[in-house]
From TrEMBL:
Pfam families assigned to the protein according to its UniProt record, in alphabetical order: CS (PF04969)
GO biological process, alphabetically ordered: chaperone-mediated protein complex assembly; protein folding
Gene3D superfamilies: 2.60.40.790
One Gene Ontology CC term in the entry: cytosol
Residue ranges occupied by any CS domain in the UniProt entry: 2-87
Name of this protein: CS domain-containing protein
UniProt feature, compositional bias: Gly residues: 119-132
Domain of life: Eukaryota
GO molecular function terms noted in the UniProt entry: Hsp90 protein binding; protein-folding chaperone binding
Family to which the UniProt record says this protein belongs: Belongs to the p23/wos2 family.
Location of region: Disordered: 106-173
Length: 173
């Protein structure tokens, strides 16, 4: 019996990115059709295999894959638009969202770990900005006002009465 690898996916309006979490795959077989992807291979003596029926058709001729580190696919959508899921049918436990590459419609214009189609791999530019050391103003940097000044009077609750009562305190002058 074959195992199912984790498959991470993300999308852009015109494409879908898949990462199959397998390293150093041997005897790999890939069958890519406009409506389906099938893949099998061996890693450390274990057999892996999966098949996905895509949510919508892709352009097979414009799609690519690589096996440099992990198995990665760039799938060109036949029609631009958002897919509500990667596959037809119900949720598959081994298919997960790739949050590093995911781009919502409100993220448009931002660069998210772009998929390197030329080398078909790599992580793109890593930005370590915003990890401290900024001299920007932060509301947490404000000085807080002192608590109420000590007037020598405190409030206390009496036994059964719910109303606070003023109680004079002796000063240690």
């Amino acid at each position: 019996m074959s195992l199912k690898p984790d498959v991470l996916w993300a999308q852009r309006p015109d494409s879908v990115y898949l990462t199959v979490d397998l390293k150093d795959v041997q005897d790999m077989k890939v069958n890519l059709e406009s409506t389906k992807l099938s893949m099998s291979g061996k890693v450390n003596g274990n057999s892996y295999e999966f098949s996905l029926d895509f949510f919508a058709p892709i352009k097979r001729e414009e799609s690519k894959f690589t096996t440099k580190r992990l198995v990665e696919f760039y799938l060109k959508k036949e029609d631009d638009g958002e897919w509500t899921s990667l596959q037809k049918g119900g949720k598959l436990p081994w298919v997960k969202v790739d949050w590093k590459r995911w781009q919502d419609s409100d993220d448009e214009g931002e660069t998210k770990a772009a998929f390197n189609q030329d080398g078909m791999g790599g992580m793109g530019d890593m930005n370590f900005g915003g990890m401290g050391g900024d001299d920007e103003y932060d509301s947490d940097d404000e000085d807080l006002p002192d608590l109420e000044p000590d007037t020598g009077v405190s409030t206390a609750m009496s036994g059964g009465d719910d109303a606070p009562q003023k109680v004079e305190t002796d000063s240690l002058d």
